[in-house]
């Protein structure tokens, strides 16, 4: 196993609740993977065997495997429903947020595949690049356990940016590198394996979004700074999931499918806006056929609870405003403006009520309180149905307190001799001052240096290019070396004088000079190479040049 050096933004060993949860998720994913392999093998044996006794034995084994698999998946779902560990550690009381756990991945030893490619494609001594290979593997290992802060985000983005260079250096269209990327579905633990680097990049991008949800959930939202930080984090999470949805297709795991990502974007936006109608849209997204049996029951329950809770609060605060307004004196000059605002807050104008009449305002306020109490009670009922939500003491406290406030206000304005017809309260218009600003991931803010830059400039020394390396000996003549140069890193032979020294040595226009007298000059500037060529002795110059081969497809003659 790779020994991980201390890495800024990596938190592999800190025994916090979150890291323990993540370690348990990783172990469960491995157990699920093992049971799936056992089931696949048993099913193949059952189909292939014609012996009835063997079939009975295999069928019994399959029942045990399926039972174990179901228990493991239920345990994983319970872990994925553990929202408490990601919430703020302050003692303030607020409605909990829904965070995501990170996708897990297997450790990969890339040493042999990368060394083989360096030897075969770049014709280099691969042993000289062991440090670079080790550095890349350590970076990958570190990004599996990012810390829950901005440093952890920078670590994930650093690795994501390094994947660009890895792709350019080692993933050739002409051959397979032989590296398999194993990632587990974030909610079910079902493993997926692909050789495509796009799968690795997409999974890292998913974790960038997931980590932002955890950062957002841990903010103290009773402070202005905490609210702003939570909004920023959930908007960035939405941006990561939307970017993944728009740029990566054919996802092998359900958590990265378009319907799942669309649902996650809506969920993040809802947690920014805290609007009941937006939560209703989230519930619709969770109910599509592909996701209805996939999304954790605790998530669905939490969204339903929040929908009813926020609708109840809308009715409650409208009722408070109506009751306070009804108690205003007739001389208050601003009364007309407040009444107009109270009418506009409804989806339709209240019927059979004159809101300039204080008694009608009180009746409408009372009707809103009745609706608020019904919504509060439904939120509490849904909370009680879900085992995971029952464990969230903060949520129970928030819902009970809101319910108690509505009951207290209702008893305050209720009159025993109130024989008037019961008023009907219209629904409240959805409105929020916080408009979502989905923030696309900015990878340019985390600048990285290509770990394998010693292989040479990417414009030439890339996996997609093929070249021939040649050795040439030049002896300066009366007319000089007979060549002209252009560019930097590496310097290009722009022209060769016919009959000159360079032409006789076999140099051609378009060659790149990569070494002069044994000194590597792939990264050298134009002036440095010119100086080295002018410093030639009577014995001449030893040049190493490469000639790029054309990738043009030859026509097929029929």
UniProtKB/TrEMBL annotation:
InterPro entries: BRO1_dom (IPR004328), BRO1_sf (IPR038499), HR1_rho-bd (IPR011072), HR1_rpt_sf (IPR036274), PDZ (IPR001478), PDZ_sf (IPR036034), RHPN1_2 (IPR047138). Keywords: Coiled coil. Gene3D superfamilies: 2.30.42.10, alix/aip1 like domains, HR1 repeat. SMART domains: BRO1, Hr1, PDZ. The keyword Nucleotidyltransferase does not apply. One of its GO terms (biological process) is signal transduction. Belongs to the RHPN family. This is Rhophilin Rho GTPase binding protein 1. It comes from Sinocyclocheilus grahami (Dianchi golden-line fish). The gene is rhpn1.
